[in-house]
Specification:
This protein is an alpha/beta fold and about 500 residues long. Helix content is about 45%, strand content about 15%. A hairpin with a 2-residue loop joins strand 4 and strand 5.
């Protein structure tokens, strides 16, 4: 009986908030309609202070933040600034002090969840279906026209024909190429910059990255060019998308249409296999994902892929390495800033073959996500929590987050101010080259089949010809079709 009352209460809460920036209804109409819905949903929500503007005072807000933001000091700066701004109200924000990968659906009802949480869109939106996340009144935010439509859609849900937004986008996550400029040969401008644009060719073309990786390892067997674990589907699946693959149909809302084998996705798999041929067996499992920071810093790897929010971690490792070599702190930081390059992914050969000498190329598409803030349905201080989210997503705090962590802001004004790679990522999102993870629960079923396929693809490099599973693109196509079947079977079983 207790759980039933809770479910009815949460169902009522979902109808209280305004729909979003572009609602055609007036505030008065929304208020009337929501009041009617609340009355018919459950009397348990009657009198709820949810986003009424009745700010709770002398309360504590428990915030679940990203581990990197905590370890790099940004989160402390955020809550210190918020607490100072709201000290006259007695409102204090504190670290929720729990694993960033909490299970709100199971923990929240028993009082173990945070009031505010910072997570990727696919994580937050999985909680929305069970009404564990509150829809937000976007008319109270100053950033509606600063966020691209695709980022808003990642946090939207539709109930009875009405669209609700359940999170505020903060930063765009997408694979980025990291490389060490000081590891380039001294004559790179003459030998590896054919278009004379002062950018090394291997940072602009996967074909040239393959060629350079081969040269590096041939000259020194302890050194490698590009290195990345293939079993990490978040990073590898973009190679499939670049040639026509996708996750789910109908803008990622139809899990009955699974598209990892669509178009000429097998060409992307072929490129991955060719890149793996210039790595070592660490590409089969998580080894490279784990050691990339230190191996890039000590010069074992020339390049790898990761997300923008870990730039500070790569930089920190490189600063430490320079200091070990005798540089002062200031000298080490200056060198790290000069030599650690983070940029968008190189272009791919249209042919899907890094070795055929073809010049025609296409832009790399990537899997991506949007991290943002949301408010738990189980909070007892919704209005104070809303104030925190507004403060944390303000221009000033997003700019500080970008400065300290190297994130790619979802806010256009901050992205333009930061410039460089951040602006490129923002533009990539608007141009459709960043394929946002679906915001439906079925996305959880894609990872295991995909990981199995990509692991086998990496293992093939070290198998004899008779043992290889994927000898050509035709067999890769069949392998991807089997991935789609396995995902469909898992979704069907889940349902």
């Amino acid at each position: 009986m207790k759980k039933r009352i809770l479910a009815l209460s949460l169902a009522g809460l979902m109808t209280v908030s305004l729909a979003g920036c572009k609602s055609e209804k007036t505030t008065e109409e929304n208020t009337a309609n929501n009041a009617e819905k609340t009355t018919t949903s459950s009397t348990a929500t009657k009198g709820s202070p949810l986003f009424t503007g009745q700010l709770e005072e002398n309360v504590t807000i428990h915030v679940l933040e990203n581990d990197t933001a905590i370890s790099k000091g940004y989160f402390k700066e955020l809550i210190d600034a918020f607490n100072e701004a709201y000290k006259d109200k007695g409102i204090t924000a504190v670290d929720a002090n729990m694993d960033q990968y909490l299970d709100l659906a199971n923990d929240g009802p028993y009082g173990y969840g945070p009031d505010v949480l910072y997570q990727a869109n696919d994580v937050i939106m999985q909680y929305v279906e069970g009404k564990h996340i509150l829809p937000l009144p976007l008319d109270q935010f100053d950033l509606c026209d600063q966020i691209p439509e695709s980022a808003w859609k990642a946090y939207q849900t539709t109930i009875d024909g009405q669209t609700y937004t359940c999170g505020i986008p903060v930063n765009v996550q997408a694979p980025m190429l990291y490389y060490r400029k000081d590891l380039l040969p001294s004559n790179w401008a003459a030998e590896w910059d054919k278009d004379a644009d002062n950018v090394p060719d291997m940072a602009e073309s996967w074909t040239e990255m393959y060629n350079y990786s081969k040269k590096v390892h041939e000259e020194d067997a302890s050194k490698y060019g590009y290195m990345k674990s293939l079993n990490d589907m978040y990073f590898t699946s973009g190679f499939l998308f670049s040639y026509g693959g996708y996750i789910f149909g109908n803008n990622n809302t139809d899990p009955s249409d699974i598209g990892f084998s669509a178009g000429e996705a097998e060409k992307g798999a072929n490129v991955l296999a060719q890149l793996a041929s210039q790595m070592n067996e660490d590409c089969i499992d998580d080894t490279i994902t784990t050691n990339a920071y230190s191996k890039l810093a000590d010069g074992t790897y020339f390049a790898t892929i990761s997300t923008p929010d870990v730039y500070s971690t790569f930089r920190g490792e490189l600063v430490n390495k320079y200091q070990e070599e005798g540089k002062s702190q200031a000298e080490a930081e200056k060198l790290a800033d000069e030599n650690l390059v983070m940029t968008i992914l190189p272009k791919l050969p249209e042919s899907g073959d890094l070795t055929d000498g073809s010049k025609a190329e296409l832009a790399s598409k990537t899997m991506g996500g949007v991290n943002g803030y949301a408010i738990s349905s189980y909070t007892k201080v919704p209005n104070a929590s809303l104030e925190f989210v507004k403060f944390a997503t303000s221009y000033e705090m997003i700019k500080k987050r970008a400065d300290l962590l190297g994130i790619a802001p979802a806010r256009k004004d901050v992205a333009a101010e930061v410039g460089g790679v951040s602006e490129e990522i923002y533009n990539n999102l608007e141009e459709g080259n960043i394929y946002l993870m679906p915001s439906i629960k079925e996305v959880s079923q894609i990872w295991t089949p995909g990981k199995t396929f990509f692991t086998d693809l990496a293992k093939d490099v070290y198998r004899s010809d008779s043992e290889k599973k994927y000898k050509d693109t035709a067999s890769m196509k069949k392998g991807l079709e089997e991935v789609c079947k396995q995902i469909n079977d898992a979704i069907t079983t889940l349902q």
